[in-house]
Specification:
Layout: H1 3-38, H2 56-69, E1 78-81, H3 101-104, H4 106-109, H5 119-122, E2 123-124, E3 127-128, H6 139-154, E4 163-166, H7 176-187, H8 203-213, H9 220-225, H10 245-251, H11 253-265, H12 276-284, H13 290-316, H14 323-348
Antiparallel strand pairs: 1-4, 2-3
């Protein structure tokens, strides 16, 4: 064989070896990509990939971490029924119904040669199949090994394939709408609010009363909490209490005097209230006649609305309103509401 033929055969052989190596590397690369995209190792979201990498992957990681911040984890969404253990991770899945073994035995997972092992690889029949990096160094570590084996043996197993059932649905199937509902429950904070929506009252007035019950109106106290410089934080009408929702609308002497006139006009005995929410709750439960209660609620909403307007007139126009004038403005406002609703009913007829 000539030297030229020997070189050509050698180059062909090297080319074939290079193609084999590239195919192996390509297969390994795609296998890594598929495992990462589907998180087959079910690792925590912060270990999926680098958050500094731009694109959709960063969004997936961020959403996953936000769900974990709400207490929604992968294991909390499903019930796992172990059969042959070929589809359940030994360390990361909650197959013992006590939590993941990685959280129960965080020290031992670092000693396992394969942290992503399945249950079938570590539990053969009723016997454990360990592959530790080293043996136990002391009695405390040996006790941890014994504890882990006790947890394993207490987990129920059966023949067949592993099954995963969603905890969010009655049929065990996973639906995105159920997860959306769970997220809404985690993000929603229920607030006790006695507001009753009455068609007789204008929408902006109902919204104001709702915010007043939650102490979300722009009083001097609330503005100060928002780092707004306010020269005077006391009540502008009486100069005794603080300029906050419960005082200026319920406890101020001007408001209490007007309330006495209004309750007397409604033929209701004099009442004392400590907060706007208590005042509105009293109106929402007053009487047995729905029609009379509806009108009384409108009167109370008008009382709070006119009280707030009187406070603003004192702040910006420097004009003080007496209790009697405040009561007259409340009665006039409610009469206008009633007349407007009556005219709308006649037009619809």
């Amino acid at each position: 064989m000539s030297k030229q033929e020997n070189k050509s055969s050698k180059s062909k052989h090297e080319k074939k070896e290079g193609e084999k190596r590239s195919n192996v590397l390509g297969n390994d690369l795609w296998r890594w990509v598929v495992h990462s995209i589907h998180n087959l190792g079910r690792k925590p979201f912060e270990k999926w990939g680098k958050k500094s990498l731009p694109g959709a992957w960063m969004n997936v990681v961020n959403v996953g971490m936000e769900l974990e911040g709400l207490g929604i984890t992968f294991s909390s969404l499903f019930d796992i029924r172990i059969c042959d253990g070929s589809d359940t991770l030994f360390w990361y899945d909650d197959w013992t119904c006590l939590g993941s073994l990685a959280s129960i035995c965080p020290h031992l997972i670092n000693l396992d040669k394969k942290k992503s092992a399945f249950v079938s690889e570590r539990l053969c029949g009723n016997q454990p199949n360990w592959k530790w990096k080293r043996a136990a160094m002391d009695q405390m570590e040996a006790a941890k090994f014994i504890k882990l084996e006790g947890i394993m043996m207490g987990a129920p197993t059966s023949s067949g394939a592993d099954t995963w059932r969603s905890k969010l649905s009655s049929d065990g199937s996973f639906y995105v709408r159920d997860l959306r509902h769970l997220i809404n429950l985690k993000l929603t904070h229920l607030v006790q609010n006695p507001i009753v929506w009455v068609s007789l009252v204008m929408t902006n007035v109902v919204f104001f009363v709702w915010r007043a019950c939650l102490d979300r109106i722009p009083t001097s106290t609330n503005l100060t909490m928002r780092k707004v410089n306010i020269a005077i934080s006391s009540c502008h009408s009486c100069n005794n209490g603080m300029d906050e929702s419960n005082h200026i609308l319920v406890n101020c002497p001007i408001a209490r005097g007007a309330l006495g006139w209004i309750l007397n006009w409604c033929q209701i005995s004099d009442q004392q209230f400590n907060s706007v929410a208590e005042f509105v709750g009293f109106a929402a439960q007053w009487g047995r006649c729905p029609k009379k209660r509806k009108i009384f609620i409108a009167i109370i909403y008008g009382f709070l609305w006119c009280g707030w307007k009187a406070r603003n007139v004192k702040v910006f126009d420097k004009v003080r309103t007496s209790s009697l004038n405040l009561a007259d403005s409340i009665i006039t406002l409610v009469f206008n509401w009633v007349n407007i609703e009556a005219s709308l009913v006649i037009v619809n007829l």
